[in-house]
Design goal:
Chain lengths: 139, 246
């Protein structure tokens, strides 16, 4: 590739060029953006865990503490945070269940079940569990 | 239709410049010409110093992968007319060090391939008299993953690999699965360490771009997610039954 005059590179070794990954690489494509959003969603999942623990603590500490907790959640800032968190958690859940058929290959009598069916089963189970929880909480 | 199209081609001559520059060439815009034909025209008629890799011209050898208008593509299977009126940008595959012009250093991928031992491993001492037989259904289990042509478009599309070159990467994992899922193979335990290491499947956070980029529908992202489930199950098994053999 090089003749004898082209020896400006170190020790006659070729000098490969390494392109740096731009800091904003993830805004370039929708799929990259979605991926970063899903990564960020884990923070909100963690927030909901903390929120749940706070709720349990409030319930355990009696009527007064529970009321104070409810007042605190009615605060616009907390409300907004929870709405955003819910959206991210939904994104997390939906992408997770869409991934399930990729990871699971289920065979029934030697035939591979269509991926849509596996995803549908997961979404179905999610709906049932949510309905049961809603029934317990609201009922 | 216009008679010619401008190709902006990345040039990098390590003896002359510190980083790649773009050079424009006008090439005939013909209906049956792929990007690669345009490059061959440049090389033969306009500028013999241009370097790039290719061989089969029919999507089989996997050596002509480049970045076309920002997307990883096989240049022999991507047509100039799809980019008319142009210009069309041709750059080397992303995420690999550039040796010269459009040629990248594929050493890292080659090393990773051998790590997953992509061949049939048998534990029996003797070779049988005939072939190891296999039913069409058993062939179907791994056939998709055997279509890989080692073109590395998936590595080029993968931001995780771009950020962390230690990641084993899509094609190597898909090829490991090609053998793991082969009924004649007995080597999945041998491949497990490399696959379930932190630089193996767990580095993947499912961007899914590898499967989008793959020209052979190998679906490496699917292969990786499937192995995650396998690895998790194996870990659980060895936890519950510490003495059970793998
Ligand atoms: S998995 Fe697809 S994109 Fe990756 S090397 Fe194989 S054929 Fe190319
Ligand atoms: S030249 Fe062989 S795949 Fe394109």
């Amino acid at each position: 590739m090089s003749d004898t005059t082209a020896t400006s590179h170190v020790g006659n070794q070729p000098r490969p060029y390494r392109r740096r990954v731009p800091i904003l690489w993830w805004v370039r494509r929708r799929s990259y953006l979605l991926f970063v959003a899903r990564e960020v969603s884990s923070v909100f999942v963690a927030w909901f865990v903390v929120f749940l623990l706070l709720l349990v603590r409030a319930v355990l500490s009696g009527e007064d503490a529970y009321r104070r907790f409810l007042d605190w959640t009615a605060n616009p800032f907390v409300l907004a945070l929870n709405v955003v968190a819910l959206l991210f958690v939904l994104l997390h859940a939906v992408t997770w269940f869409n991934l399930a058929p990729q990871a699971m290959v289920v065979k029934v009598r030697g035939r591979r079940l269509p991926p849509v069916l596996i995803a549908a089963a997961h979404f179905g189970a999610w709906a049932v569990v949510s309905a049961v929880v809603a029934w317990i909480v609201l009922g | 239709m216009a008679r010619s199209i401008t190709m902006q081609v990345a040039r990098y001559r390590p003896d002359r410049e510190a980083e790649p520059t773009m050079q424009s060439y006008d090439v005939p815009l013909r209906k049956d010409w792929a990007i690669l034909d345009g490059l061959n025209h440049i090389k033969d008629e306009l500028d013999g110093t241009l370097s790039y890799r290719w061989s089969c011209r029919m999507g089989i050898c996997g050596s002509c992968g480049m970045t076309v208008n920002g997307e990883p593509k096989l240049t022999c299977a991507t047509f100039l007319t799809d980019y008319a009126p142009g210009p069309v940008r041709v750059e080397p595959l992303r995420n690999f060090p550039v040796v010269r012009d459009l040629v990248v250093d594929i050493g890292d991928f080659m090393a990773k391939l051998s790590v997953v031992q992509p061949w049939i491993i048998r534990k029996d001492e003797e070779t049988p008299d005939g072939e190891y037989l296999q039913t069409p259904a058993e062939l179907e289990d791994y056939k998709q993953f055997s279509m890989c042509i080692n073109c590395m478009l998936c590595y080029s599309a993968c931001p995780i690999y771009g950020l962390n070159e230690h990641f084993l990467g899509p094609a190597a994992i898909a090829l490991a699965q090609r053998y793991n899922l082969d009924s004649r193979d007995q080597g999945s335990a041998d491949r497990m360490d490399a696959l379930s290491a932190s630089t193996g499947v767990w580095d993947c956070t499912y961007v899914g771009e590898c499967s989008t980029a793959c020209p052979k529908n190998v679906d490496p992202a699917g292969a990786i997610q499937r192995y995650k489930l396998t690895a998790a199950t194996e870990t659980l098994k060895s936890f519950l039954m510490p003495r059970g053999g793998r």
